[in-house]
Amino acid sequence: MATAARSGAAGAHAAAAAIGQLSALATPRTGPHAVPPFPPVLVQGIEGINFADASLFDVDQYTEAKAGDRAAASKYFQKEASFISKMQDVLAEGRQLVYTTYAFRSCGRAIPQVQAHNQEHKDYIYRRTSEILRLEIGRMTQLMAFRDKFVAVFTEALAGIIPDIRERDFFPSEAYLLTIAQMLDMVVSIDNMKNMKGSMNNDLSMYKRAMSNFPKEQTESEIMLLPKLAFFVAQQDQFAIDVKKAIAAMSNTYEDILHDMINLCVDYIDSDHYLTPATRYCYLRAMAFAVLILDGEGDERDFTKRKKLKVDKLGKIFKATPFVPLFGDLVISLPAIYAKAPHLANAKWDTAESDDAGKAALLKSFKLSTTILSHRAEFRDYFARANLAIASLRTWKAGKSSVMPFELAKKIYETTLAGLRMMSGFTSKVLDQTAYKFLHPASRASNSEIPEDATSYELAVRYNYDSEDKRVLVEYISMIKNLAALLNANLPILQEAVDSHIYREVQLFMKGPITQYYASATKKKRSIGPLLKYIRDSAIDGAIDDDAALKANVPQLHFLRALMDFVFNEKSKGMKGGLIKEKNFKDAQVAELQRFFDDSFFFRQMMQLSETIKECSDLSNLWFKEFYLELSKQVQFPISTSLPWILTEFILESSQADTIQFALHPLDLYNDAGFCTLNQLKSRVIFDEIEAEVNLCFDQLMFKLGQRIFVHYKKSASLCVLPADLKVELDSIHRHETLFYVSFEYILRQNSFELLGRCIDVTKIMSQMANQYLRRSIEVAITRFESSDLFNIMELESLLESAHLTHEALSRHLDLERFEDLVAECDDSLSLGSTNGRILSHVIQEIIGDIVPNFCFNSITQRFVRSPVFYTEPVQRSHFPKTRPMYLFGSKSLGVAFTAHHIISKEFFGEPQFGCLLRILTPAQIGVVVSEVARHTELIIEHTMGTFIEAVYQRCPKNVRLPASNLNVTAQFEVYSEMYRHLSTYGDLKSQIVQAFREIGNCMIVTKMLDDHTCVKNSLSKMALQEFVSLEHGQKAYLDLVKEFEGKLNFGEHAMTLAAWSDRVAGLARPTNFPVDFLKSFVERTNSVLIDACREWNVGSDRLLSNTKAFVHIWSSLQFVLCLPSTVSSDRVIRELFGDGLNWAGCLFLSILGQSEVYQGMSINGNMLALAQLDLGFAWPPTAAQASPTKNAVDQASALRPDVQRYLDNAAFFAAINDHAFAALKVLRSARRSARASARISHAAQ
């Protein structure tokens, strides 16, 4: 027997080693596990033979019984194993019927009913009804037939060993008693499942009604079957009734078996001697039903008087756990089972919910929040220890040793067992709370927000969990799934270590204590000796280290444990002792045997580690809802009532940073439900519902999670862009956002998330959504910019910078498109039908259509401000779009802060805005802007300027003399005012002529501002780079030296060669400079068009101003008129309406035409200011520091007429602006001359 076991285990080991080599081809995960991975395929020995080889374990040759009793004694264990095998077969069939019954749904509801006796096609409807329902009736018949089979096998298993127990002092083994417990549990389970399905009665009634229309087509057996089936389906607790009837006719010895079974279950539950939650619930349900069987009518059947029964402990267990989940959403109340016992009152068991205090204590015991702190600490401590143990195992695996050290295998076994027990305990806690919630639904009295039409399932689930319940439940689910993920991820090596430990533990115990006990018994000539020899011989193998990878088998372990229990159990003959008879084993030996017996209890489940992990982490009950669908008579509940989605939605809406990392864990409940549906329920309909719900939930989860993650990173990026003075107020609001970083990073690393058999790359989905949101953010920023004036350039830069930082942060975890490509796509810069991008087009449109014609330039502040009076048509812009905060700055509070920051810059257009233009637009785009501005100037000069100059010339006096020496400034002012009266009253003076000069001047100023900012930017860029990277001779020598290393050293494994690296370093030293000399280009283009279009404006060759149409005369007259107070309203001056741009335009023309110096000598305003200085004795405008011998300068100026004072103020300001403009143009003109001279010298040298 041992040799056969060795050969089978050796073959399995060889196959496992061969398959283990495939691990080298596996692709390792690059991220953490959000759900347990699918378990690997493990090659194991033959399992599940259900004691088919029990006959091989022959005890005859080892027993010393008399010849007449030998057969019965030696065959007892084989007979018991045979009964266990039969019961296991029945249990397997019964479990499948339980699953089938749970998944049963009424087909009759979907079948149309016959409404009238004479209805058309009545026979066809009845015939099709019978055909459809025949399959369902077959399932009911199968269930009824199983009842008879179950009762027969159960009674046979009890009756078969009763004679041995009563007559030969045998007692049932632990495996037999636990199998009896499973049989009793099956009775409770299948009865409650059948009682729950009221739709069976409906379908059966509809089938009988349909078949009654075809009496001749029914066989005699069918006619006799239907009444029996109707009685079976209609009667409650049919299995329990028949089982009680069957065993009532048996010998009372069965009661001893049930006593032992109950006591064993009590001890195991009291000491947590089980591994899976299903085992614990099986014990509880079996004990409750066993109490009902034991108790009967009459005092002699009073179960409370049975001394063998641990009644007090049993009552405490029932009080602590009155509710037990059966399957899915079906929950059993244990008091409802044993309450039918006639003598229950004698037990004096306290009811858990007898008063308010008891209800509160029971609620506290079932709530997960009462144990979360201790369980969280246990989980973290175990996770650290398990990782250390697994790391040690991997280190050994990577070594060359072929034999696993015993201590290492033992450590791995103990660690794995501790993890399974912890996981089982957590799962039990979750299922216990779920059972309590199902039996204690929410009420409208305690929660007024519950709608009147809420279904029973909503009361039990949707409205029965508060925020604390959801948070704790999510954490428990995450701990369970993380434990399962840890064990599944290392399953092959863990299984190898566990099998090695089990095999060695058995062999060491056989070669150690059992061999010693056998030697001692043989020496003392005790009858137990041959049996100990049989135990040793049936389990022992060769040298442990020579064949350490062999594996024990299940039948071998069963008989080993059964025989060990038989020899040292207190009921054994050899353990009773007496006055002159010594026990077979001493107390220390019994303790040693008991330790091995208790430890080996878990061996079978540990040998099937993958299945055990699945059972310990199964939370499918949290999704199933068949009982409530049957109760509510509905086809399906909405997704909002599904607990997995409720938990997922709670996580997404939670403001706690440590909760968001569990966002994917509730979805693993669908994996559990799908696995259970396919492998247990075998229901395609339910699986399709799970799949449909998963598709909807996962889409919603990815949508909401993607938004949540994007908003988080958008807020963080916006806070980086926001000025420091505004961050202080928002710090308390957004400080907690930084805590979410780790949780979001954990989610973004999920590149292989398993869901219903599909491996989903969450990272890829998040990348697609992030690209979409970034693209939308950029699109919104550009659209808002297009819908506003150029003042909004500051907001555009902030939005783009926020999006850029968001992209930069997300790109650390996600594979995103280049930000430059996203901007170019949204800006239409890549479109074949667009020459300019949207941003550039809008900048040009706003500068030419709004800034140039409608703004006034202030030379002192260097800013453009909007004119109070418009002389052009208003600019038509699209409607300003309404946008969600996530596409702007992430939140409303940040949006308000940025609005407050930008509101200041929306009153002017100056240095900050020009800086934004240079940062947003590329050097080539800035050149396009300057070119378009120059083109606009050219069009004004070509098409309108000649006409306007002619109009001014016609309204000016043809002969203007210098001021007379005998007139004071006031009188001369009157003379000039009269001479230019026609020009000052010209209707189109401001709206046409002055407006044209304003536009040309603003065009020049815009160009100058861009030129100035470009020079500053280039200088700063060069200085910043030269501080770190320089292309001077020393640096070039260094780069050359680096390149030489390429040929001397081997750098073939590097991703980039040193030569390529050196080229990139050199590229960094060449800063991207904006083109300069924008103003020079502008003046040259203006010069060419002005010379060609206005030749008659030039002065005569004798420079005596013989040409009365010379521009110097026109501009002198025009400036005088513009300084007159009568030209504008009494409360304004001309520069408030048109700014300083018109002065720059006139100076530009004078400079190009070479009349600037002439103008300074014959300007009317200049002569008037000189005359005022001559009259008053000081230069205008007066100051307190200026004085005359008689009075203060301010007092002297006050003596002039107000209109003269206003004129002189305007003239003095114009003169200052002219001087500034002439100085700038003179520098430019000198630079042009130097460039031309250098070009001539170079040409001559060639």
Ordered list of secondary-structure elements with their pairings:
Elements: H1 2-20, H2 67-74, H3 76-102, H4 122-167, H5 174-196, H6 199-211, H7 220-234, H8 238-248, H9 253-270, H10 277-294, H11 311-320, E1 323-327, E2 330-333, H12 334-338, H13 344-347, H14 356-366, H15 372-398, H16 406-439, H17 456-462, H18 467-489, H19 491-523, H20 528-539, H21 554-568, H22 587-600, H23 603-607, H24 609-616, H25 626-632, H26 643-653, H27 668-681, H28 684-721, H29 724-734, H30 741-748, E3 753-755, E4 758-760, H31 762-786, H32 793-810, H33 819-826, H34 838-854, E5 855-858, E6 863-866, H35 892-903, H36 911-920, H37 923-954, H38 969-979, H39 981-984, H40 989-1026, H41 1033-1048, H42 1058-1068, H43 1078-1093, H44 1111-1123, H45 1134-1138, H46 1141-1153, H47 1156-1162, H48 1164-1176, H49 1193-1198, H50 1202-1245
Antiparallel strand pairs: 1-2, 3-4, 5-6
Helix pairs in contact: 3-4, 3-5, 4-6, 4-8, 5-8, 5-9, 5-10, 6-7, 9-10, 15-16, 15-18, 16-18, 16-19, 16-24, 18-26, 19-20, 19-22, 20-21, 21-22, 26-28, 27-28, 28-31, 28-32, 31-32, 31-33, 34-37, 34-40, 36-40, 37-40, 37-43, 40-43, 40-46, 41-42, 43-46, 44-46, 44-50, 46-50, 48-50
Task: Write a structural description.
With 1246 residues, this protein is mainly alpha-helical. 65% of the residues lie in helices and 2% in strands. The chain has 50 helices and six strands. The chain has a two-stranded antiparallel ribbon with strand order 1-2. A two-stranded antiparallel sheet has the order 3-4. A two-stranded antiparallel sheet has the order 5-6. Helix 16 packs across helix 19 and helix 21 runs antiparallel to helix 22.
